[in-house]
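Hey,

Quick one before I head out. I ran the complex with zinc ion overnight. Inputs first:
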Amino acid sequence: MSLIQVLQNQAVTLAVVCGLVGLIVGSFLNVVIHRLPKMLEREWDGQAADLLEQKDQVEVARKLRAGIAQRYNLLTPASNCPHCGHKIRAYENIPVVSYLFLRGRCASCKAPISMRYPIVEAISGILAAYIGWRFGLTLAMAGALVFAWSLIALTVIDIDTQLLPDDITLPLLWLGLLVNLNTGFTPLGRRLSVTLDGVLAVQTHHRQGGHGLRRFQTAWRHRCMARMEAAARRHIDVLAGGRNRRHRLDRIHPARPQYADSIWTLSCRRRIDCVVLGRNDQPDLSAVVLSMGFVVGLTGGIGSGKTTVAELFASRGAGLVDTDEIAHRLTAPAQPAIAEIMRRFGPRFVAADGSLDRAQMRELVFADPSARKDLEAILHPLIRQESARQIRESTAPYVVIVIPLLFESGAPRRGMDRILVVDCEPEAQISRVIARSGLSRDQVLSIIASQVSRQERLRGADDVVHNDDDLDALEAQVIPLHVRYLGLAKNG
Ligand SMILES: [Zn+2]
């Protein structure tokens, strides 16, 4: 009997062979899990360095390149102990066995090795053994193995980094459909068409261009897939003429705000962040944002230069939503909010031109918390609605939303994929605000005191831009972040 015949006829032998292969693959998966996100980051740094060189920011580009000079892929450099640099020898790399033999410690420096390595190897081996036993030596077995291994890698990478690298997901998606054509994991025909339509509908969504899987996840989160499937069942000719329907689907998936806790600034004349609005009990924007691709929340203290930074991102192609500007527009003459404000607070708070009298209102809400709450109740839902609309309609690969008082809210992180803080020295902050607003130094200081501290803001930041220098220095920081956000949006 040949080896193939043995494997075909003896389920247990096949399971054992699969299990052993699974252990070895598991060891390789550990490498993929550890290195693939780093490889992505290096790729982004390389792109950022190219862009910076075009901008004559040679010094910054050189630093970025220095960080990625060493070759780095799944095979090189050889694995070593992160503590002592000890090169891991072949016999120390036997799946599970080596870990047990070394009692979970580096052979050289005795630093503990994460339990995760043997666990990933064991899961990979056990799953592979089961798949071999369950499917026998068939194409279905091969497909199931690739699927299981990919999912293990994706799961752990997702837990670590919240990334689902396109390098794995996209081939897997299409490979899955191909394997299905020949193995019948799922009945051919209608169901597969539905799947295909779902995938395509998501991939050709307005925010496309590599964001397919992210769309898929968010669509799933919002139970849109059910609707897509229903739509697809009505039109079995899914692949032809799907376009219009997809657009319609787009529209029947309205933003549904759900949760509370957010703070907005009431924008004042000449763009001062007035610390007017506090917590509220209204549904908030971030729940809406969840369904809308990659969103970067940009915040910073008064006078830190949020708008300048936001505009630098926008000039490179990011979508820009400015809640300050929205608040300002909502309280312009003849806006619905004005009628509401008039009804609740009286005509004293509406200026001669029909817009909100900001000075009066500021005084009132500083003195009277219940007035503040009422004002928030009028403005917040409108600001959220408008922000959500702008984000939804953006065709940019990712959106930067400027929320001056992000950290003053109860749940700054909700709905944001990244939080970017614009930071600067307090003195620079003070002189900028005085220059543009004519407020006194004391007034500026009291506004700064009413916002969260600089330390607190920096603690909550994923990324920080330091705005103490000129525009070139700012751009040198913005470009690498922009490239990173593009990559995260694509692979998120
Ligand atoms: Zn070591």
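Residues 3-174 form one domain.

Talk tomorrow,
K.
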